[in-house]
Design brief:
Elements (H helix, E strand, L loop, with lengths): L9 H12 L2 H15 L11 H14 L13 H12 L2 H17 L8 H15 L10 H15 L2 H5 L16 H7 L4
Length: 189
């Protein structure tokens, strides 16, 4: 068997790795891992009405914009979040998520009605407040959660794993690695 013949899904690898690690990560992000493994790109509007799906799409792209690498829209992060909310959240959590989107929309006086620049400014200000040193985290709980789902969806997507990060096909060949190689690979040398 050669390296070229080995094929491991990124999402299956992430789920398998976390299962092996057995850390608290699994308990905290089990829903995200399940959704990442099960999600099929291209799924649309399983849960969100069109307006809320568009909001999630635009907010995701503001959080992770397209640059030299694909952004959240190209990585289909909004589809991932829609799938995750539909299939892995309880009814109570789904209602809370929709309520959070509605509150965000109300705070922006109609997020979708804003110009692209005003949307970016609104999210930038919200992000600044949500991650300030002295902040009531409860007040920004929804935004922080949404940003977490955006980053999870992005970095478990093909675009996030292969183009935004240095892609190292796993499993790789088994060989001994020197300390210097390890440090250089991780950017510490």
């Amino acid at each position: 068997m050669t390296l070229e013949n080995i094929s491991v899904s990124r999402r299956k690898f992430v789920a398998g790795l976390t299962a092996i690690m057995g850390t608290s990560f699994v308990a905290n992000y089990a829903g995200a891992i399940d959704a990442a493994v099960a999600y099929q790109s291209g799924a649309r509007a399983k849960f969100f009405p069109t307006k809320q799906l568009e909001m999630v799409k635009l907010i995701g792209e503001i959080i992770i914009p397209q640059t030299k690498t694909p952004g959240a829209i190209a990585a289909d992060v909004h589809g991932y979040i829609d799938y995750m909310v539909a299939d892995f959240m309880t009814t109570k959590a789904q209602k809370k998520f929709l309520s959070g989107l509605e509150q965000l929309d109300a705070k922006a006086d109609g997020f979708l009605k804003l110009s692209a620049t005003a949307q970016q400014d609104f999210i930038a200000e919200l992000d600044k407040k949500a991650y300030a040193k002295k902040v009531d985290k409860k007040k920004y709980e929804f935004y922080r959660s949404l940003k977490g789902w955006v980053t999870t969806g992005y970095f478990t997507s093909k675009a996030g794993m292969t183009e935004a990060r240095t892609y190292n096909p796993l499993p790789g060949p088994l060989r001994e690695v020197t300390r210097q190689e390890w440090l250089a690979f991780n950017g510490w040398a």
